[in-house]
Design goal:
Rossmann fold
Length: 233
């Protein structure tokens, strides 16, 4: 039997979903259409639409569903990585590998993706400082982490102005050192969508609903939407 959750303890809007990826697709396309249609009406070029994607199962599921729309505006998007494992881009655990493969499969140009390198933090700091940061999609781990912001990890507290950080999971549950956007970077996006998929997320969802401050509960942006699978409550 599902536990009752107190949605007041989540920052932003909470939606309980039968189909997280479907709701995600609708929200993202509405935001994209609003952006590009307004730009066309105004006749102004306001820069590229920048969209950050997380790795993991939810990142793949949601990106695949978005690609199924075949929306024309997807061709105009520049893609960022919310986080990355410190492995080669061709490694099976690389978020870039997963995202670029999915982008290619849906007929989009994988050259529109900016790789995130553990050896070159400065490049991403520059990108995040000068781009139109519109949407970031974030997954949600069974421990309540988002991006690679793990409980009790050093990246939870970074100096003011720092937008990326190297990090690792102190629990050892998530292997590979990581590089991740910081809370400050995520806060720069107009819309953050946290996708919670799977029964194994129940305990962390319930903990946040009871006021526990897990990393995902610390996510802020202009607009934050939680999409929580029915199986996760």
């Amino acid at each position: 039997m599902a536990k009752s959750i107190n949605t007041d303890n989540f920052y932003g809007q909470v939606r309980i979903c039968k189909d997280v990826a479907g709701d995600y697709q609708d929200i993202v396309l509405n935001h994209i259409h609003y952006y590009f249609n307004n730009r066309q009406v105004s006749g102004q070029e306001s820069g590229a639409f920048t969209f950050a994607i997380s790795g993991g199962s939810s990142g793949k599921i949601c990106l695949e569903r978005l690609c199924l729309s075949k929306d024309k505006f997807l061709e105009e998007i520049e893609w960022l990585l919310a986080d990355e494992r410190c492995v080669e881009k061709t490694h099976r655990d690389s978020n870039y590998n997963m995202i670029s493969s999915t982008i290619e499969e849906c007929g989009l140009n994988k050259n529109s993706i900016y790789p995130l390198s553990c050896d070159d933090r400065d490049s991403y700091e520059s990108i995040l400082s000068r781009k139109n940061l519109e949407i970031i999609q974030l997954g949600f781990g069974p421990d309540g982490h988002c991006a690679s912001l793990f409980p009790n990890s050093t990246a939870l507290q970074t100096p003011p102005g720092q937008l990326t950080a190297k990090n690792f999971d102190p629990s050892g549950l998530n292997r590979h050192p990581r590089i991740t956007m910081t809370f400050e970077a995520i806060k720069k996006f107009k819309l953050a969508i946290i996708c919670v998929i799977g029964e194994e997320k129940k305990n962390a969802v319930y903990a946040i609903s009871q006021g526990e401050i897990l990393p995902a509960a610390m996510i802020k942006a202009d607009n934050v939407i939680w999409l929580i699978d029915e199986s996760a409550i």
